[in-house]
Write a structure and sequence with these properties.
The complex is a heterodimer of chains A (309) and B (328). Chain A is an alpha/beta fold. Chain A has a single domain, classed as Rossmann fold, CATH 3.40.50.970. Chain A is globular. With 328 residues, chain B is α/β, with parallel strands linked by helices. Chain B has two domains: 182 residues, Rossmann fold (3-Layer(aba) Sandwich); 125 residues, Rossmann fold (3-Layer(aba) Sandwich). Chain B contains twelve helices and 14 strands. In chain B, α8 crosses α12. The termini of chain B are far apart. The chains are: A alpha/beta (309), B alpha/beta (328). Chains A and B meet through β2, α5 and α6 of A and α3, α4 and α5 of B.
């Protein structure tokens, strides 16, 4: 889980750097600060389990097993990317790793996850689907339609809301009535509030939810309270709608620094070991950047190649 | 040959494909015990069970989204959206996801979702239950569009659709459900992108869609007694569109009329005429669209009659076309 969080952190720090240099084009949304959610959930999943991710999804895919090379090449729009450069940061898939799709439409992935869970149930497979989305998605119709559908059919799906406090610039308290996790109750499914800055807390609630889904007992809604350190995108840190004090307050709860502290203080790891993991992770990302930069773009002749299957 | 109604032909196609492939399932509002609002799925739950004929909640966006998710996982869902108007409830899944997933993933995901729906123009159902807007989906790359006009075409196109690998919008006409026609015995498969010439003629080409095909055939019969020879082409699928057949016909007749139940502006006819002009400008003496005016469908029956195109609108358009000098 430490490695998973670190990988997400270092990769998205690199993405911000590359974006600001103009090397990554378009739109990219870093998950800096939110890494514990993907790491804690994914530690409960096997390869056969599936995820649906969203526009802030680099971390989810990495944590589910997509390689740094495939991810960064896709962000560069290169042929070696996980979708051959056709999807980019916001629209990608890698079924071999269990990543069904990352959608750029807020809330749009939730019905897809329910359909995939329906397929698992029809195929009588013991696996589950985890759907990641933000607090903003909880105010879309798709969220409510999909939660109801999953609940009424007891589907093996776990809805993971990463409540990072803002939908672009609009704070949750100004846009979202009640508590997100309590919305599960309205559909007769368990809703849990969890500290999304603590990977072990996330791990524990996700473990219960995954077991429940695989036993055929139906969906769970997890609301993970977390925070995005960057602004909505990598171009700023969003100081026009929130204060530096607020950002600093959340950064003091940093999921990676605190987990490092915990691992060392409980003698589960040493500074040296963690440093080695950090160095190896950094090297893999540097390698992936070089690989992506050196890879070819898809040829123009491929423009219409993937319209029809 | 046997005689089936349009809705029976659809039901037969569904049953045959469900027997053939365990991965085909039906999904939508009231499709189970109730048999669908228009009875297209009547009796299927008895044969295939509630696991394969699934009554869904009233959640159109989630119906298409969940069908898409299941298709990614290897199923062939046939989703039913009760009225074409309700496709607007599915906008995100239908426009932003389904047609683009194969493309956005560089060809990795396949999403063979069939969406069966119908439009009810002609049944006095008013502005929210009458709309026919296939041109919107001609403008949305990545989803095929079928508009069968006969029982045989309905069966053959639906079976082909279910065996395909792409998302398909299958638009039925409620006004045609009870209409009967001959359907070949045994396996009926009709390819997409292959039009059907309903009657041959030399003076005017009428390209008619869905309910308007029958109206065009009737118009051609009337016009023949005036000595006007009309060729009627049913494209059968709008995406892909058999432009080759249309252009070949227009090169022969020099006159093109399109006939559809949608509103005129930016409709199917606009696209067909534009494409014809791009390839056969020099051959076209005149081109006209028969369609609904740019007005929402009215409820009041006499107003609906005034609003809807039909046999007489086609006859008037053709006569006007034949009697004037297009350069004047």
């Amino acid at each position: 889980m430490y490695e998973s969080m670190l990988k997400q952190r270092l990769l998205d720090e690199k993405v911000v750097e590359l974006y600001r240099k103009g090397l990554i084009q378009g739109i990219a949304h870093p998950c800096l600060g939110q890494e514990a959610v993907a790491a804690g959930v994914m530690a409960n999943l096997s390869k056969a389990d599936l995820i649906v991710s969203n526009h802030r999804g680099h971390g989810h895919s990495l944590a589910k097993g997509v390689t740094e090379r495939a991810m960064l090449s896709e962000l560069f729009g290169k042929e070696t990317g996980m979708c051959h450069g056709f999807g980019g940061s916001m629209h990608s898939s890698d079924l071999e790793c269990g990543v069904i799709f990352s959608t750029a439409i807020v809330g749009g992935g939730i019905p897809l996850a329910v359909g995939a869970a329906l397929a698992l149930k029809m195929d009588k497979k013991t696996a589950c689907v985890v759907c990641f989305f933000g607090d903003g998605a909880c105010n879309t119709g798709a969220f409510h339609e999909a939660l109801n559908m999953a609940a009424v059919w007891h589907l093996p799906v776990i809805f993971v809301c990463e409540n990072n406090q803002y939908a672009v610039s609009t704070p949750v308290i100004k846009s979202t009535a009640g508590h997100i996790y309590l919305r599960g109750e309205g559909y007769g499914i368990p809703g849990k509030l969890v500290n999304g800055m603590k990977v072990l807390d996330v791990y524990e609630v996700a473990s219960t939810a995954v077991a429940r889904a695989k036993k055929g007992e139906g969906p769970t809604l997890l609301e993970c309270e977390t925070y995005r350190y960057s602004g909505h995108g990598p171009y700023d840190i969003g100081l026009d709608y929130r204060s530096q004090e607020e950002i600093d307050r959340w950064k003091a709860r940093d999921p990676i620094a605190n987990f490092e502290h915990q691992l060392i203080s409980q003698n589960l790891s040493t500074t040296q070991e963690l440093q080695t993991i950090r160095e190896q992770t950094r090297r893999r990302i540097e390698d992936a950047v070089r690989f992506a930069e050196g890879s070819p773009y898809p040829p123009k002749e491929q423009l219409s190649k993937h319209v029809w299957a | 040959m046997k005689t089936l109604s349009y809705v029976e032909a659809i039901r037969e196609a569904l049953a045959e494909e469900m027997r053939r492939d365990q991965k085909v399932f039906i999904f939508g509002e009231d499709v189970g015990q109730y048999g669908g609002t228009f009875k297209a799925t009547k009796g299927l739950i008895q044969e295939f069970g509630p696991e394969r004929v699934i009554d869904s909640p009233l959640s159109e966006n989630a119906i298409i989204g969940a069908a898409t998710g299941a298709a990614i996982m290897g199923f062939h869902p046939v989703a039913e959206i009760m009225y074409m108007d309700f496709l607007n409830e599915c906008g995100d899944q239908l426009v932003n996801h389904l047609p683009k997933l194969h493309f956005m993933t560089g060809g990795k995901l396949k999403v063979p979702v069939i969406i069966r729906t119908q439009y009810s123009l002609g049944r006095n159902t008013g502005a929210q239950h009458s709309q026919f807007f296939p041109s919107f989906f001609m403008n949305t790359p990545g989803i095929m569009v079928a508009t069968p006009s006969t029982p045989a075409d309905a069966k053959g196109l639906l079976k082909t659709a279910i065996r395909g690998t792409n998302p398909i919008l299958f638009i039925e006409s409620a006004a045609l459900y009870a209409s009967k026609g001959e359907v070949p015995e045994g396996e009926v498969l009709i390819p997409f992108g292959k039009s059907d010439v309903k009657c041959h003629g030399r003076d005017v080409t009428v390209v008619a869609v869905s309910r308007m095909v029958r109206e065009a055939i009737n118009a051609a019969e009337s016009l023949s007694s005036d000595g006007i020879s009309v060729e009627v082409i049913d494209p059968r699928t709008l995406v892909p569109l058999d432009m080759e057949a249309i252009v070949t016909s227009v090169k022969k007749t020099g006159r093109l009329v399109t006939a559809e139940d949608g509103v005129k502006t930016s409709g199917v006819g606009a696209e067909i005429i534009a494409r014809t002009m791009e390839t056969a400008m020099g051959y076209v003496e005149d081109a006209q669209r028969v369609a609904c005016p740019d007005i929402p469908a009215p409820f009041s029956p006499p107003l609906q009659d005034a609003y809807m195109p039909g046999k007489n609108t086609i006859i008037e358009t053709v006569r006007r076309m034949m009697s004037r000098d297009p350069r004047s």
